[in-house]
Amino acid sequence: MERQASPWFLAFGVLLLLGTPAKSIFAQDSFYKGKTIRLIVGLAPGGGFDTYSRVIARQMSKHISGNPTIVVENMPGAASLLSANYLYRVAKPDGLTIGNFIGGLSFQQLLGLPGVEFDAPKFEFLGVPAQDNFMIGVAKSTGITSVEQWKASGKVIKIGGVAPGGGTDDIPKVLKATLDLPLQLVSGYKGTGPVRLAFNAGEVQGACNSWESFKSTWRAEMERGDVVLLVQGNLKPHPEVPNVPWAVDLAKSEDAKKMILTSARVSGVLNRFYALPPGTPKSRVNLLRKAFMETMKDPEFLAETKKARLDLDPIDGAEIEKQVRELFKLEPALVAKMKEILK
């Protein structure tokens, strides 16, 4: 009597016929099985970075061979510079540590930010879940309802920030310089969650935050009408807020427009990237890149993000890698001007 081949043997034979590196596939399954992946968020709990990461952590495991546990750890400090340095210099390049820090730190490396201990193009990028659209919002209690009124009044509004490298700080600095906005940046908060608490306590009267975070983590303030959006600092006007003017339309010179768009690109497209330490084996980089993008289409993930009012506009790791490398090819004259503004 003939013996039937086992399902595993048949599957292995199919992989060989297709030219698939079966040994690599089974090795990755074996590696991640029973393991724990640390997802290190460089900002405090309660903000947009933390919210996105916790939803991703709950759903991504099922898309990784071996189904490892994914745990979120917050490592706030210097606008996530602490976590970026940790990922580059301390974390083992074994595919078990993912970092989520402010992507604008890549540009700050180019500008010579003190404390940068990484070379951004050497990170292994998994992708971003969303592209951010930063806007300045101020407290209704200020009585300011438009950019024109704000500039005419000369009223200095305190804007809560985190640290250089993020849209919370860099975009207000660029808009202050290019549009002559009377604002004072009060930096040093550990995330947009603490900025929101400071806003509610009256320590600051405004914030530069992504529209995505305003809708999700500032939901109560938005619904009460406590926040008035005054200007968009995006790559292009956001269709959901057609009555909020776009900064580029308000700029008076081509140089001003270039600086606004460069800042928007850095803080918008690159802002929320997920990365691995340099030297992580390419097989694990590719596996996690694939799992990340599959998570972005997962029905349970989509349901969670919808409930949390988190926008999705994902970009894969290869494109983020390209965008980071492009930053280091900017015109030296433009970089010098922005360095003066963002120092």
Briefly say what this structure is:
The longest helix has 15 residues.
What would you say this structure looks like, in words?
- The protein has 343 residues and is of the alpha/beta class.
- The chain folds into 2 domains: 15-131 and 270-342, 3-Layer(aba) Sandwich (D-Maltodextrin-Binding Protein, domain 2); 134-267, 3-Layer(aba) Sandwich (D-Maltodextrin-Binding Protein, domain 2), CATH 3.40.190.10.
- The chain has 16 helices and 11 strands.
- It has helices at 7-18, 22-32, 48-60, 81-89, 105-111, 147-153, 167-179, 192-201, 211-216, 219-224, 247-250, 254-268, 282-295, 299-307, 317-327, 332-342; strands spanning 36-41, 69-74, 97-100, 124-128, 134-139, 157-160, 183-186, 206-210, 227-232, 274-276, 315-316.
- It has a 6-stranded mixed sheet, sandwiched between helices.
- Helix 3 (48-60) packs antiparallel against helix 14 (299-307) and helix 7 runs antiparallel to helix 12 (254-268).
- The protein is globular.
Overview features:
343 residues, alpha/beta, D-Maltodextrin-Binding Protein, domain 2, 2 domains, six-stranded mixed sheet, 16 helices, globular
Considering DSSP H and I runs of 4 or more, what fraction of the residues is helical?
A: 40-55%
User: Biggest sheet: strands, sense, closure?
Assistant: 6 strands, mixed
Q: Which strand-content bin applies to the residues?
A: 5-15%
Distance between the termini: 80 Å
CATH third-level topology of the largest domain: D-Maltodextrin-Binding Protein, domain 2
- Rg (CA only): 22 Å
Q: What is the helix/strand order?
A: HHEHEHEHEEHEHEHEHHEHHEHHEHH
**Whole-number average pLDDT?**
91
Report the count of strand segments: 11
